[in-house]
């Protein structure tokens, strides 16, 4: 935390740093981003839309193991670098269904990862990222509870990558190049499952809301804590609090703690209470969570439209964790009121299956 401006202003009474409003931090107030805010981008049809629903080509060469009921699978005995276009499309479909898919002992290089990921769309770039093709992801060895005293962005909390953009990312991939033997795990939550876990009354309430996503808190924190200069000005967007996934056509909660500051249709206190509830909701969602222990050569590919994730802070040596992340642009989030939740679909399919079985059984008992 040595870069924080607050640490240059120690209170003579307590001996601790003072809390500075970002407007009084010259590093923030005087920064002029070199680029403009992004405009809406029309993206191509999702690659998962072209996949065989049974994923026969992919599962012929890989063994799938589900890590939890709601989210997360591992594909074993396969190298991403060897997958063809058809198998990559099927991988995208699997990711939309399972939220996040993991691999061990991959032989990908950064160049090959970038080349492979371009199959899924146009490469995205984080506001603080200088290289158009990828971003370096480090770990977290700091106490985010303490950092929150001096910087407004909850950098260690659940988020979907740059959800504040007009076109937030669809898919992200992280490949680990360096990693400590213990610590530095990442947790993902299923936003399909988070929506299912709401009461019917809360679902109806949230269905009609827009979540306020902002990059302002991250923008200030990047300048202060990281000492870097964001490339683009801060942006505020209002995205549906529940979005419809373009491939699965399922409802997914679209609220995260890293970038959502409220709800457009609600008054301030109402918004604050609802956001406080969602903080509890996300952090108590063990039944819709998966936690991944990284190793060098491990890869995760996830869908930002139906998951949120966070790095788990640890006490390992700073600088011992390094990953390469690539992301691609997704569609502008939308909500279809006629879409269904994952639970509703499962119940509907189960009911249809029982009806079919009972119908066949009844027919077989009719005498000739």
What does this structure look like?
The chain has helices at 26-29, 56-61, 85-98, 110-117, 144-147, 191-196, 200-207, 216-226, 268-283, 342-364, and strands spanning 63-66, 73-76, 100-103, 135-138, 169-178, 186-190, 210-214, 236-240, 242-244, 251-253, 260-263, 289-292, 299-303, 307-311, 322-329. β9 and β10 form a beta hairpin. The chain has a single domain, classed as Double-stranded beta-helix. The radius of gyration is 22 Å and the shape is globular. A 7-stranded mixed β-sheet has the order 1-2-3-13-5-15-4. It has a 3-stranded antiparallel β-sheet with strand order 12-6-14. The protein is α+β, with helices and mostly antiparallel strands. Residues 339-348 have a biased composition (Basic and acidic residues). One of its GO terms (molecular function) is metal ion binding. Belongs to the TfdA dioxygenase family. Its cofactor is Fe(2+).
Task: Indicate the topology.
Layout: H1 26-29, H2 56-61, E1 63-66, E2 73-76, H3 85-98, E3 100-103, H4 110-117, E4 135-138, H5 144-147, E5 169-178, E6 186-190, H6 191-196, H7 200-207, E7 210-214, H8 216-226, E8 236-240, E9 242-244, E10 251-253, E11 260-263, H9 268-283, E12 289-292, E13 299-303, E14 307-311, E15 322-329, H10 342-364
Parallel strand pairs: 2-3
Antiparallel strand pairs: 1-2, 3-13, 4-15, 5-13, 5-15, 6-12, 6-14, 7-8, 7-11, 9-10
